[in-house]
Amino acid sequence: MTALPLTQFFATALPIALWALALVVAIASVCCVIATLRTPRRPLVYTAAGLLALAFLLVAIPQQGAPLIFRVLIGIVALVLSVIGGGPAAQLTLALATRSTAVPGIHGGIVVHDRVSGVEETREVLRGGTTIGFLERFATTGAIMAGFPEALGVLIAIKGVGRFTELEAPEARERFIIGTLVSLIWACVCAGLFRFAAG
């Protein structure tokens, strides 16, 4: 007699527990990212990425959409995590990929050397990357959350055209491609967290 109500209870309670756990895990990921914003700490970035992956798996398990309150909360946390978390993830990936060979500029870009009329000159390229990254991830995550992933093509085109003249140096191209891909992947995973929760 009690087996059926108990089964129904678990069938109802398990998805709610998974969504709640996913929310807590995503908030923990945000906390890790916030802790690494001032001083880059690789273990915290790895932990934040692992927690994001775990939260993604937790919301993918239930085969139904979450209640409205969970959708809203997971959506807010996913958007915050996307905007502030993609920067440390991109910086870590760039450090691993380039082995810190690029010289950082004073405006957030990198210093490249050019030969103009036989004279070597230095200039800073890819300035404002942090602000552009924030906007890029906000727009990417927002577009996917709103069900308009086609906007990614427009975002990538705008960024490519805007940076076109700065991509002559090989190190600038490398940083641009790696940074953009990591930033977009991070934003897409965060948006996917919401989309899976929404059902």
Task: Report on this structure.
- With 199 residues, the chain is mainly alpha-helical.
- The chain has helices spanning 3-37, 42-60, 68-98, 129-145, 151-163, 170-198, and strands at 103-104, 110-116, 119-125.
- Strand 2 (110-116) and strand 3 form a beta hairpin.
- Helix 1 crosses helix 3, helix 2 runs antiparallel to helix 3 and helix 4 packs parallel to helix 6.
- The longest helix is centred in the first third of the chain and has 35 residues, at 3-37.
- The mean pLDDT is 83.
Average pLDDT reading: 83
Give the helices and strands as they follow along the chain.
Answer: HHHEEEHHH
How many helices? Answer: 6
What composes the largest sheet? 3 strands, antiparallel
Number of separate strands: 3
The amount of helix comes to over 70%
Give the low-confidence spans: none
N-C termini distance: 33 Å
Shape: elongated
Beta fraction: 5-15%
The side-by-side strand order for the widest beta sheet comes to 1-2-3
| Rg (CA only) | 21 Å
Structural class by sheet pairing and helices: mainly alpha
